[in-house]
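dude i think i finally got it to work??
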Amino acid sequence: MKKTILTGIRPTGNLHLGHYFGAGQNWIKLQNEDYDFYLEIADIQALTDNFDNPAKVRHNVREIVMDMVAMGVDPNKLHLFVQSMVPEIAELTVIYSNLVTMARLYRNPTVKTEIAQKKALFGNSGESVTYGFVGYPVSQAADITAFEGQLIPVGEDQLPLIEQCREIVHKFNTIYGQTLVMPEPLLSETPRIKGLDGAEKMGKSLGNGIFLVDSEETVKEKIMSAVTDPDKIHKDDPANPEKCMVYYYHKLIKNKNINTVCEECKAGKRGCVACKKELIEKMIEFLKPIQEKRKELEENPQIVDDILIQGTEKSIKKAKETMKKVRKSIKIDYFNEE
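look at this
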């Protein structure tokens, strides 16, 4: 039988190059391999820190689906679904909440890091953090187990979330009998894409990324502001391309002229403005097929709805099968007694 993969993304905004190279290419690779692949739009988890702006989350669900399909995600090769439309996930979340302590959730390094990053929302010391946010690893455990996920693509920074899920599965199976499938992390060679400002991570809120939907003018403005080698003062000064974000992006999108870019930069035969202009041209060329595909989806919104409806219906069917087994194990299948 095919092994099952479960992964997801929170609809908090349009996708940028960090998503494309960091996760999207891996999704496309996995969808073409012999897996039963569930790809979740985690809108309920997006609400844990956007609870005061549900309209934003709702809008971003369709935006992110258009981005994903435009970049190459094929709804015919995987199950693309919306988390909130699978009620069994919410039911499992409630059941699992009895199997994990608040102290354990607070010790989760991923949760601790994210609380510290959201001081504006949760206070300087996290004094205003919500139950929903602290408990989102429980919701993730429900996501994984609802579809009997066996392999979960993650980077190393997300391993604590998988470990939390494994603890919940172990405790459930110990108390109620072997019911849930134990997931394993599928460590992907997911690169962390740097921002135009040289920061180690491109982020939606950091203003340092190129988005798949960016117009030509926006791409020009962003690239012209990209950080270059600070030691290159004059146009003809030799420079170190490894210190330059413009060179970094030339490599990222596989500019065929990359060797020339590197050698001219080192020899002081290439000015930063000229190099940026070449990158602008290549970046616009790179984004063009993605944006053309996306425009087709924008003009045919029913296609987007159909993708989500079909993927969610298939996902609900699987989650119902899991929930039937869980209910039997914890003896709340009152009207299905043998």
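The chain has two domains: 3-194+300-329, 214-296.
im so relieved honestly
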